[in-house]
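Hello, quick one for you while I still have it in my head. Could you read through the record and tell me how the tokens relate to the sequence? No rush at all, and the record is pasted right below.
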Amino acid sequence: MANTPGNNPDDLDGDRRDFLLISTTTLGLAGVTMAAWPFIHSINPAKDVLALSSTEVDLSTVEVGMAITAMWRGKPVFIRHRSAAEIESARAVSLDELRDPQNDADRVQKPEWLIAVGVCTHLGCIPSGQSLGDNKGDFGGWYCPCHGSHYDASGRIRKGPAPFNLKVPPYAFTDDTTIVIG
């Protein structure tokens, strides 16, 4: 009796072996993936970190001349509603006078609102100048009493050891009185 294709017992054993190999490999890969998932997921940022990645601030209560501080990513963000005189003095500064030259218009989206990270670029101190009675320095912005850095109303370094202007965080106006930082 001749063996016909598919009836040979050796062919059936080979097919069974191939099926078992593919099935075992597939289940093994699925198991490794499921076992590795908690480790992969642990690399993602925590929920509290994600919550701090952006901050929404209502500006409707901030009157002209006032400043508030918001927290973003664990850092203070200075938000100042600048007066017409502050805007004019910030625009009138020649770039030749600045250690870190930047036009005022390049630092703001709306001239009346200055948003800057409130960390001195010298050694990371928090400058004064947010409250009404605070020393605002020689240029009417902020003053870092630790080492004597003076910033103007545009957050630009004007005097002292700080090498750079206060950083402007990424932000967007969602409407006329609300911003989202981050």
About this structure: The chain has a mean pLDDT of 87. The two ends are 80 Å apart (CA to CA). The chain is about 25% helix and 25% strand. The longest helix spans residues 9-41.
